[in-house]
Amino acid sequence: MIKLIIIFALLLSACTNLSGNKEKPLLYEAKINGDYASIAQCVTNKLHTDTRWFMRLLQYQFRLYPEIETAEIYAYDTRFIPGIYASNSPTNPDAVLDYVNPNPTILSDSPKPVYPELTYNFVLNIKKIRDLEVYATLHGNKYVGTITWKYLQTCKTFE
């Protein structure tokens, strides 16, 4: 009976962790020289031109908030986005890929995820703190996040 209770307790604790927080851990943060919009555009362009298969599985949403001088880049795995079918899935070699426009969506309200019900792979936030100085944070997957952070480092405008 005690074994059954222990097994049940372990199973219950494992199930509670499955529905945990969707917020990803903070991987990187730094002050960087440059304009927030041009740095974000540079990073987005580098992400869109990356030809590695695991980067092609991601769909990037580039959003600008001019009123609060912030830029965000969300990366979602296309395998989990609603409306992706075999005919346009990046995992299908014969698919007709639906490329997302690399230009930003300009919004005025507070930042919110594009697909709030989905978990993002990473999110890069770039916020202006002074003229030609921004504060960048990256939350998410460590492997893809490290690649994105390296792109960000190459997009700095001044040292």
Plain-language structure description:
There is one protein chain. This protein has 159 residues and is an alpha+beta fold. The protein has one domain (24-154). It has helices at residues 2-18, 36-49, 53-56, 142-154; strands spanning 26-33, 58-65, 70-77, 105-106, 122-130, 133-140. It has a six-stranded mixed beta sheet. A hairpin with a 2-residue loop joins strand 5 (122-130) and strand 6 (133-140). Residues 17-21 have low confidence and may be disordered.
Summarize the structure.
The protein has helices at about 1-20, 35-50, 55, 140-155; strands at about 25-35, 60-65, 70-75, 105, 120-130, 135-140. The protein has about 160 residues and is an alpha+beta fold.
Descriptive tags:
159 residues; alpha+beta; six-stranded mixed beta sheet; 6 strands; globular
- In terms of DSSP E residues, the strand content is 25-35%
How far is the N terminus from the C terminus? 66 Å
Query: Helix count?
Result: 4
How many structural domains? 1
Order of helices and strands: HEHHEEEEEH
Helices and strands in order, then pairings?
Layout: H1 2-18, E1 26-33, H2 36-49, H3 53-56, E2 58-65, E3 70-77, E4 105-106, E5 122-130, E6 133-140, H4 142-154
Parallel strand pairs: 2-4
Antiparallel strand pairs: 1-6, 2-3, 3-5, 5-6
